[in-house]
């Protein structure tokens, strides 16, 4: 497995967002090309029924410098299964995930990649700016991981993963649906793996009126808390469990 | 004279206490003590106590349970000086008076004098210009020679997260996406907290062109400490303050908005602006000199 970056677009009934996501992916590809970083574009559609497939299939007809490699799943398998499929199918050792309702900031993806290479981190992430009606209202994934991660997920959306290390740890648990990325982070932390925050803007997410609120009584959340946060000791210890790095400064925290 | 500070809370107050102490004239320093709150409680009382940020001192984790003793010790001193660098009008300023200690004087450290609210009008107000110390003067002079060196990070925006700041971060990213963006949730900047301490900030600003922040409330306040943090590492400080830009115009580093700042620096050389600001500071007496004059007045 050679060094380089698989840019992976995850689509699940995201038709209205696709033009923006694809544009962002192509601009990111151009930035990686300019930075001399080998890359590929991988699209995984998780059984969309809203016209996303038609749109993506239509793109195949356009000649671009970097064509998409597309995987169509016959029926929805959920976020965990899709991400796991992505890291198994990726042609490069590092995979940058982009949910199709997000947008990458092309200039900074190379910096996430460099941070991953220079630190050996298994997960690297940067700030995600949250938009409401086109206006920035919040920033997520905005700091080093604290032990509060054992109580709730603090890393959203755009992350870059070292697939070899992630697979060594067992990859995503396909049975956990949208909680799978969080569970993988918890499992990696318990194995003392390095998770690094890069203090640059990595991308954008739209906050929509029908976005689901976190359900505190979700049995999956309770189960993960029981496994990783026994008696809430860990989440309440306020311990720093991640680090901060930015090339060319190096380690910051 | 004892200069007292909290050593396990926000580092900038400990840093101010150290700067005040180490920049005192030699003979004065020989008669003074720099004590963290715990050391102060364990030391023999002195007749003059200078507390750098009373609220932080009372919140010092290592004296938990001994806060009433601290209050009695400070209240019993013949002279009680409160050193403060807070914006008058904010809760952080009001918190300084939470324990009804009768302060002999309030020493406000900054670049612009502030007017005390009417309920504090009886507290004698003294102002100390937050100029560089003797040691910092040497650092600034060295930067004058190297200010045009290449810096890989175009801007740094570091503050606790608010909705307004998220909006400003977006503006900055649209201007140049390669900046340093750190907007963590609010919590004390304690060692090991995952917040940036002085040595972290120094490393970041040493690689940064513009250290930018934005006014966060409707009070006229100028963050002189951020200016010094920037200049001491060769970064140019920029405050965006749409409401009070004209009041702070003389500094040359306050702008009404990001477009205005971008426009100014498309026509003005950053190195020249840096040198002008540094010379303005080098013309001032040092922090320790000004502090001593105020104490002796």
How would you describe this structure to a colleague?
The complex is a heterodimer of chains A (253) and B (297). By secondary structure, chain A is α/β, with parallel strands linked by helices. Helix content of chain A is 32%, strand content 27%. Chain A has helices at 18-35, 52-59, 79-89, 106-119, 163-168, 180-190, 219-228, 233-236, and strands at 5-11, 39-46, 68-73, 94-99, 102-104, 123-132, 135-140, 159-162, 195-206, 243-246, 250-251. In chain A, strands 1, 2, 3, 4, 5, 6, 7, 8, 9, 10 and 11 form an eleven-stranded mixed β-sheet that branches. In chain A, helix 1 links the parallel strand 1 (5-11) and strand 2 (39-46). Chain B has helices at residues 11-22, 26-30, 37-42, 54-58, 67-76, 91-94, 134-146, 163-175, 198-205, 224-231, 258-267, 270-282, 287-296; strands at residues 2-5, 33-36, 48-52, 79-84, 105-110, 125-129, 153-158, 180-182, 208-214, 236-240, 254-255. In chain B, helix 7 (134-146) packs antiparallel against helix 12. In chain B, helix 8 (163-175) links the parallel strand 7 (153-158) and strand 8 (180-182). Chain B is an alpha/beta fold. In chain B, the strands form two sheets. Chain B has a six-stranded parallel β-sheet with strand order 2-1-3-4-5-6. Chain B has a five-stranded parallel β-sheet with strand order 8-7-9-10-11, sandwiched between helices. In chain B, 39% of the residues lie in helices and 18% in strands. Chain B contains 13 helices and eleven strands. At the A-B interface, helix 4, strand 6, strand 7 and strand 9 of A face helix 8, strand 8 and helix 9 of B.
Short description:
The complex is a heterodimer of chains A (253) and B (297). Chain A is an alpha/beta fold.
